[in-house]
Structures are given as structure tokens and as C-alpha cells.
Design brief:
The complex is a heterodimer of chains A (351) and B (317). Chain A has a domain at 113-350: MetI-like (MetI-like fold, Orthogonal Bundle), CATH 1.10.3720.10. Chain A is 70% helix and 0% strand. Chain A is built from 15 helices and no strands. In chain A, α6 (120-151) runs antiparallel to α12. Chain A is globular, with a radius of gyration of 26 Å. The two termini of chain A are 31 Å apart. Chain B folds into 2 domains: 47-106, no CATH class; 109-281 and 292-310, Orthogonal Bundle (MetI-like fold). Chain B is 67% helix and 5% strand. Chain B is built from 16 helices and 4 strands. The longest helix of chain B is centred in the middle third of the chain and has 32 residues, at 108-139. In chain B, 48% of the residues are buried. Classes of the chains: A mainly alpha (351), B mainly alpha (317). The interface between A and B is large, with 131 and 123 residues. Chain B: Keywords: Cell membrane, Membrane, Transmembrane, Transmembrane helix, Transport.
């Protein structure tokens, strides 16, 4: 019995209250465990520095210091993120072309947006992106969660192997994606060689980057190789946040392991899985570097994800106005989808 | 009651399930390492070995990849090469065996230095600004704090190419195109959001009582920040710095669009290393190996803080 308590205490210490990075609005309960509500309340009372202390503080007022500290970061973000974004909004209503800076700029109203939304190539790119985002998320969630579940068995050396598994996600997607081109070579590449050894298909038929039906999977495989550890790490935190007494209670009630898995493990880890899916979804919606270096959007345009179409419109066709309109549409789409998703995430957490 | 070895212990998985889990995880880990091992092996292969079929696992190591990475070479007639004085160093020798002579250094070192300057410069600025802002958000009642924090986070959601269009125009006007300063400012802006979110979490964990005690002892707020909070936050600041460094080091989209020569970093440069008749894979692998090693070291140093860093502080272990 003491051993159980000891392990429970150890795990309990490891799993702090999760804290999600979204603004808390009144009436919305964003906390996962009841204990963190208490902490929030304690935190709120602690926030106000006691008057007796404040009176004795010399130097700048707290208000002045607060703005002095926050202003530089906000200014930089305004200058390098928000100002350009507003500029892009302005450009999206004009026919400006960056390669002809001296040509007269005319307003075209909503013309650019109309053209973008009626462009079949752009819808094709959105479909390619959706295919890529969907399958990378499915594969990474399934493999990542399975790995986390297995690592949570705490076999000997699990910490070491977890670190090893994490390595790919820290590397540069561009530099590593570039090298995957070599691994995918049909004749000399290791990937084709290994697949043909296992399956018996001749290596010349495994044209991962040249075949129209294989290329979309080539980018999915590399992304899954790189980012499964990311999902795994977040799922692992989720599994470790489940207190042992719940499993103990289930055991007392003679719930089968299968039942325990589906009615304790999965629902309690779900907010974490959903958070991982959110981060991966946003990242892969923006995907540019790895795909550019691996396939450049080809063969033809079967792997041309939205960011590559955008780059071509902006920096190859120099249709700056139209590209800006597309950029704004993409940004609104990510932002809108992320917001809807966060609402769903909060609902799950409230349960 | 000793529950440690009991088969019915809930919290402690059975020995056989541990063994199966361990085996599967180790197999997965080894498979995911193959591409990385292959990068290293390719870097020490000679060009003919690197493109042999079937792929060679046993081969004589060669320095040619590293030589080709650091030099540019020109083809010469055997007669001319025979007339040259004896080769100096291993690279000279390897090059001459391929009927070539070293013409000069390649662009790899300057590009690598650019990467270092831009990554460290932007990390320093982002962590500096981020620490100040995080302290502000953590300790003071800032009006609309939640909205400001969400705004800071949302700047990360923009596709880089969407930001790159106006940045490209803005930098062209300001003369910041293809300069290290321009890239440092850009990466600082991208990283500041991560730095604020992570550091706010770390500073929130430092009890306010420490500063209050210091202030009662006569410190001003700024002194208390410098002498009490900063030393307490060292681990958090170091972890944040490494995350910023890794982002700036790995970044490709902005670097490829906004730099072309002078300020080009290593990620857009490495894929352009070509030899005769296509990509010089041993040289590319050599560049990739040198480029990846610092990240490998950092990943191992960071492993305890990794979860926090990749989720913007949303999940803490």
C-alpha cells in the first residue's frame, strides 16, 4: 500500500495544473482541475500588493514601470507584425505590383478577393493543404498517443528513449526536408531501397517525389516523422496528469482494462490531445519550408500547399495586390478556425 | 502489504507489459534515427559511394564531403595538375585525385556566421524585451492584459509568407533588405511572443513575497526586479533563450525570401550546394551535419523544459 502511495505522490508532483494560453473571460471556466480554481483565487488576492508595502516603495510608480516594461515588446510587435498586416490589408484592395514600384497604384475595391475566391488553382491548393493537414494530424495523433501510452508504462530507460524520439522535431524542417530528397531518390535513396526490400516492389517503381499519387504521401511521411514526437510529448503530459486514485477506484469497481482505457484514459487526456491537434493544425496550415525543399509543389502542382501558391503569386508573378488578398483570406481562415476550435476545447475541458 | 510486485497494482504496470512497451518504443526510436544516421554516414562518404546502388552501409570513410563543403574547385587537365607542387593537406590531395584544384573558400563559413549572428542577436533582444514584458504582465494590473497577451500570441498564427509580402516592401523602403539587422529585428518580433508567454509562466511561479520583502527592506521596484526576480528566473530565461535560438537557427521562409547574398543564413544556403552534375550529396550532408549538431546538444540540455516550450507554456510538467 505504501508503494502505491509513493508512486501516486511522485506522479502527482510531476503533473501540475495545466494552464491554457487563452484569454479568460468572465463566466468561462477554463480550468481543468478544481484545485487550480483555488489557486487562481489565491493568485488574484496575491496580485494586489498590500497598501502598506506600496506606500513604502520609492522610485517610479508601479503604473509607470508596468508600461515601461511592456511598451518595448508591444512597439516591436506593432512595427514588425501589425503595421505590415495593415499594409497588406491596404494592398489587397489595390493593383500594386512590387516589381513595378513606380507604376500608378489604383484601388480595385474587392476585385482581388473576388478573383482569389473564384480561382480554381487556389481552391486546388486549399484542397491539397486540407489533405496534408488532415492526414498528418491523423497519423501523428494515432502514433503519438500510442507512443505516449507505451512510454507511460515506465519501462526501464524510458526517459532516455523519450529524449531520442524527440530529436527530429527540433531540427530545421528546411535543412532536413532537403536531405529527405536524397533518401527518396528511387535508385540510390535509402527509403526506396528499404521499402523495396520489405515489399519486393522494384526500386524504380518507388518514385516518391516523381509520382503524382505518391508525392502527397511523401510530404506527409516526412512531416509525420518530424512532428509525431511533438504530439507524443503533449499526450504524455496528459496521461501523467491523470491521478492514480481514479484507476484505483475503477479497479475496485472491477472495470476491465479496455473499459478503463476508454472511459478514463482517453477522456481525461482528450484536452491535451486536442491542444496538440490545434498546434499541429495551425503549423501545418502554414506549411512552407519542408514542402518547398522536398517537392517545390510538384510534380505538376499536386503538393502545392497554400503557402507555396501564395509565394508564387507574391514573389514570382509579383501580383502583390492579389497575393495580399489571398494572405488575408488565409489569416482570417486560420484565426477563425482556431477560435472555433478553442471554443470546442473549452467545452471538453468543462466536462 | 507490499504492492510493488503485486499483479493487481494499478499504478505500476506489470513486468511483461513494460517489456513489450519498451521494445516497441525502442524500435520506433531506432527507426526515426535512421535518416539522421544516414545524414552523418553520407557526409563521410566519397561522392561515388554516396550514389551507389544498393546504398552502401560499409565503405571507406572519406573527407571529400567536408572538403567540398568548405571549398570551391575548378577542373584542370592532368598535365596541369602534375605540374603543380606537392599537395598541401588532405583536402588538396582528395581534390586533385578528381582532376580538380581548390579555387578558394566556399560561401559556407560566411553563411554559417550569418546564422550565428542573426540567431544570437535576435535571441538576446527577444529574451530581453520578453523578460521585461513578462514581468510587467505577471506583477502589475495591466488594463486589457488578457487581450494584449492573446494579441501577442495571435501574431504567431500568421503564415510567414503573408507577413513576408509587406515586410519585403517595408525593408526595401528602409534599406533593410538582405541585412543582418533586418533579419534580427524580424526574428526578434516573431520570438518575442514566445518569450513573453514562456517567461510570464516562469515569473508567475516566483513568489511575490520575495520582492515585497526586498522592497520593505528599502529596495526600489527596479532593484527588486534586478536583484531578486532575475536571479530566481535564470532557469526559465535560459530555457526561453534556447527556444528562441532554435527557432531563429532553423527558420527558412523569411530567410529565403528576404535575404539573397550578404545576410543569407545557412538553411537557404545548404540546399544550393551543388557539385558537377547535380547536388553534391556528401557536401550537403556535411553541411547538414555541422548545422544540426548544435541543435542536438540543445535538445538534450532542454529535455526537461521541452514540453513547456513547444506549447507556449500551456502545458507544464
Amino acid at each position: 500500500m505504501r508503494a502505491i502511495l509513493r508512486i501516486a505522490a511522485r506522479i502527482g508532483r510531476r503533473a501540475g495544473p495545466p494552464n491554457f494560453p487563452y484569454p479568460k473571460r468572465p463566466g468561462e471556466n477554463l480550468t481543468i482541475s478544481p484545485s487550480s480554481i483555488v489557486e487562481k483565487a489565491a493568485d488574484a488576492t496575491a496580485r494586489a500588493t498590500p497598501v502598506s508595502v506600496a506606500r513604502r516603495v520609492r522610485g517610479l510608480s508601479d503604473r509607470a514601470i508596468a508600461w515601461l516594461f511592456i511598451a518595448p515588446a508591444i512597439t516591436l510587435l506593432l512595427a514588425i507584425n501589425i503595421f505590415p498586416l495593415l499594409w497588406a490589408v491596404y494592398l489587397s484592395f489595390t493593383n500594386y505590383r512590387a516589381n513595378r514600384p513606380n507604376a500608378p497604384v489604383q484601388g480595385v475595391g474587392l476585385g482581388n478577393y473576388q478573383r482569389v475566391l473564384n480561382d480554381p488553382d487556389i481552391w486546388q491548393a486549399m484542397q491539397t493543404t486540407a489533405h496534408f493537414v488532415f492526414w498528418t494530424i491523423v497519423l501523428q495523433t494515432v502514433i503519438g498517443f500510442t507512443l505516449a501510452y507505451l512510454i507511460d508504462r515506465k519501462f526501464r530507460g524510458h526517459a532516455f528513449w523519450t529524449t531520442i524520439i524527440l530529436i527530429p522535431m527540433m531540427l530545421s524542417p528546411a535543412v532536413v526536408g532537403n536531405f529527405w530528397r536524397f533518401l527518396y531518390e528511387p535508385q540510390i535513396g535509402l527509403f526506396a531501397y528499404a521499402v523495396s526490400m520489405v515489399s519486393g516492389i522494384p526500386t524504380s517503381d518507388i518514385q516518391m517525389l516523381g509520382n503524382v499519387s505518391l508525392a502527397p504521401w511523401a510530404i506527409i511521411i516526412v512531416d509525420t516523422w518530424m512532428w509525431t514526437p511533438y504530439v507524443m510529448l503533449i499526450c504524455l503530459a496528459g496521461l501523467r496528469s491523470i491521478p492514480d486514485y481514479i484507476y484505483e477506484a475503477a479497479e475496485v469497481d472491477r472495470a476491465s482494462p479496455w473499459r478503463q482505457f476508454w472511459s478514463i484514459t482517453v477522456p481525461m487526456a482528450l484536452p491535451f490531445i486536442m491542444l496538440a491537434v490545434l498546434f499541429r493544425g495551425i503549423e501545418n496550415f502554414k506549411m512552407f519550408d519542408m514542402v518547398t525543399l522536398l517537392t517545390g509543389g510538384g510534380p505538376g502542382s499536386v503538393t502545392e500547399v497554400a503557402s507555396i501558391t501564395l509565394k508564387r503569386a507574391a514573389f514570382e508573378s509579383w501580383a502583390t495586390g492579389r497575393a495580399s488578398a489571398f494572405a488575408i483570406i488565409l489569416f482570417v481562415a486560420v484565426f477563425g478556425l482556431a477560435n472555433i476550435y478553442v471554443k470546442a476545447l473549452n467545452k471538453v475541458k468543462q466536462r | 502489504m507490499s504492492a510493488a510486485n503485486s499483479a493487481h497494482s494499478v499504478v505500476e504496470p506489470s513486468l511483461s507489459s513494460k517489456r513489450i512497451a519498451g521494445t516497441i518504443v525502442v524500435i520506433y526510436a531506432l527507426i526515426t534515427l535512421i535518416p539522421l544516421v544516414w545524414i552523418f554516414l553520407t557526409s563521410i562518404k566519397s561522392p561515388p559511394d554516396s550514389i551507389s546502388y544498393p546504398p552502401k552501409i560499409v565503405f571507406t570513410p572519406s573527407l571529400e564531403g567536408y572538403c567540398n563543403l568548405f571549398t570551391t574547385r575548378t577542373r584542370q587537365t592532368p598535365d596541369y595538375i602534375a605540374s603543380l607542387p606537392a599537395p598541401v593537406g588532405a583536402c588538396d590531395e582528395v581534390t586533385r585525385r578528381r582532376n580538380m584544384v581548390i579555387a578558394g573558400p566556399s560561401n559556407f563559413v560566411p553563411r554559417f556566421v550569418n546564422s550565428l549572428v542573426i540567431a544570437f542577436g535576435s535571441t538576446f533582444l527577444a529574451v530581453f524585451l520578453g523578460t521585461l514584458a513578462a514581468y510587467g504582465f505577471s506583477r502589475f494590473k495591466v488594463p486589457l492584459a488578457d487581450d494584449l497577451l492573446f494579441f501577442i500570441l495571435s501574431t504567431r498564427m500568421m503564415p510567414p509568407i503573408a507577413v513576408a509580402i509587406p515586410i519585403y516592401l517595408m525593408y526595401r523602403e528602409l534599406g533593410l533588405s538582405d541585412t543582418a539587422l533586418g533579419m534580427i529585428l524580424l526574428y526578434t518580433a516573431v520570438n518575442v511572443s514566445l518569450a513573453v508567454w514562456l517567461l510570464k509562466g516562469f515569473i508567475d511561479e516566483i513568489p511575490r513575497e520575495y520582492e515585497e520583502a526586498a522592497m520593505i527592506d528599502g529596495y526600489t521596484r527596479l532593484q527588486a526586479f534586478r536583484k531578486v526576480v532575475l536571479p530566481q528566473a535564470t532557469t526559465g530565461i535560459a530555457a526561453t533563450a534556447i527556444f528562441c535560438l532554435i527557432f531563429a537557427w532553423n527558420e527558412y521562409a523569411f530567410a529565403a525570401l528576404l535575404t539573397s547574398g550578404e545576410a543569407q543564413t545557412a538553411p537557404p544556403f545548404i540546399p544550393t550546394i551543388i557539385g558537377e552534375g547535380g547536388q553534391d550529396w556528401p557536401a550537403v550532408a556535411a553541411g547538414t551535419t555541422i548545422f544540426l549538431i548544435p541543435i542536438l546538444v540543445f535538445t538534450i540540455l532542454l529535455r526537461k523544459q521541452l514540453l513547456r516550450g513547444i506549447t507556449f507554456g500551456a502545458v507544464r510538467k
